Amino acid sequence: MDVKDSNGTLLNDGDSVMVIKDLKVKGASVTLKRGTVIKNIRVTDDEAEIECNAEKVKGLVLKTFFNVVI
Q: Which fold has domain 17-69?
């Protein structure tokens, strides 16, 4: 399955991505700011989601249309 970012670039395990919009994290009082870099992502079975660990949030699932590969 091909998992792509908001620009259509193919995502792979271990890639680094940048958040393109401020995101409030459900279940936490944290907001990921636009421009935050997320390293070492993991591709899931769902082509619209990736798993990752942000600086302040562990075990995070992001929608792929909120990030771009850097």
A: SH3 type barrels. (2.30.30)
Q: Is the pLDDT of residue 67 over 90?
A: yes
Q: Strand, helix or coil at 4? A: strand
Domain ranges of the chain: 17-69
pLDDT digits (tens, 9 = 90+) for 5-52: 999 999 999 999 999 999 999 888 899 999 999 999 999 999 999 999
Residue 53 has phi, psi (to 5 degrees) of -120, 120
**pTM of the complete model:** 0.87
Say if residue 6 is exposed, middle or buried (CB neighbours under 10 Å; 0-12, 13-18, 19+).
middle
Q: What are phi and psi of 66, to 5 degrees?
A: -105, 10
